Amino acid sequence: MLRRLKPLDGHLDAPAAEALPHEGPQSPHGPTRQLGSVGRRARSRKGAKAKHKQLFGKRSRKCTAGQARARAVYLATPGCLAEQVNNAREQDAAALLVPAEGVGTGQTEVLSSVVTIESAPELPLPPPLSCNLATRQIAGAPKTVLTLRRVLLGCSQSDGPVLEVGAGTECELYDCHLRGGIKLCEGASAKLVRTHVKASAGAGIEGRAFDNLVLMACVIQNCAADGLTLRRGKADISDCTISDCGQSGLVLGPGEWKLTGCTMSGNAQYGVWAEADAHVTCRGNVAIDNNLGDKGGRGDLPDWHAGCGLLPGDHCRVWSESRSKWMHGHVAEVTDEVAVAIKGKSGLAPPDDAAPDAAPDAAAADDAAPDDVGNLQVDSQQSAQPDRPHGKTAAGLKVPLAGVRPRRSGGDAPPAYSKAGQRRGPYRLFMAEGGSGRQGWRQLPREVQARFHAEARRQRRQIGVAKVAKSKVAAARARAAAALKRHVVPAWLQRQRSAHRHKPG
């Protein structure tokens, strides 16, 4: 740090022209460059301190030894999870880090304290917890709160739920993957953020007489029973995808339920089943391609229009068949059809997409486009308009209702009517399993990468087999329709006509 010095005994005055003699070798850059180098060194030290603070946090000089130990973590080893949780508590560790090998012995682990379990840093995939977890509340003890961050929870030896949130306890899951269901007991609370629940032997999430449930950007998929079965509780579900379940996607009993921006598709029964005592508040949801219907039960779903709950002003995504991708836009008008304003690249007008005649259409809107850089809104006018700035054009885009999704849910798979098959390479499969990006993919062992490559090839073969079967069914239907259109004369009538033709006279 540079400081201003005061004159000594009046010998150095401010207006004096003579400078102090400089002893030693003279700098070739002069005094100005010397001061500049000192300033640069000061700034570099300041930047180093700021970077250290960003990486390790700011620690007060007055913090006690106990507070310093509380910031430590405990690195687990393969074995029993409950024992290592107790060891971490004895050392006042803030979190239990799970290594790449995972933790657990395939049994049910009961936790009854404030526990944070998370992945060790810089792992390419979420580490496995090979056990079932259950939380319990001990009388007179602090409230049990379980927090899981970026772990894979699942046990192949059990058909029950992999996570049971006990009565009066809380659970929070962030970026986790579960190979099984979740059960909420009486008075329990849970919060799930960017969590995937798949392959459950029963319901994906089941709760009765629970306190509160919050789901944000979660995926409930491939469950043997319902995706969610909720009764006598309160839940806030937003931006979630519930698909391919053996029964209904969402079953709502008595309670207070809020649905925002969710997608229910491909379920064996209904997209949403609401009982008469259910108080549901929904906005911007879509339910499509469910076998028995998009909505069932006696409960009332406000703002629900034939499976599409999108209202004017809601953001959405629309499938473009010609480009084979989803395009962002917003709803302009809702009638029997959905009018959508599409956002695309500047100066590029999307062509009109062909859609099946049997499905309702989602026509493009004629709203004015905002002045966002590189964006335009496509309307029903298929020619460029001179009053649009920066060469922005407008075009029409018509898709079936099944080609509309909420902005943050529904996945990236093409709709059922699309001819573009979903191609998922090994890297996309790696990211779907919770991968950490390109750097994590490069860090994977070769045998793990080979497993993802084999899975991608297997899925491509399945897509090919499905296409062949679909083409055979279409050809059989075409032959049947052609046979119905042909006029086939019965054999007895042919014989009668022949006899009449050869009769003499």
Automatic annotation (TrEMBL):
Pfam families in the record: Beta_helix
All residue ranges annotated as the Right handed beta helix domain in the record: 181-291
Region (Disordered): 1-61, 346-424
Biased composition (Low complexity): 349-367
Source domain of life: Eukaryota
InterPro entries recorded: Beta_helix, Pectin_lyas_fold, Pectin_lyase_fold/virulence
Basic and acidic residues: compositionally biased ranges: 1-12
Official protein name in the record: Right handed beta helix domain-containing protein
Source species taxonomy: Eukaryota, Sar, Alveolata, Dinophyceae, Suessiales
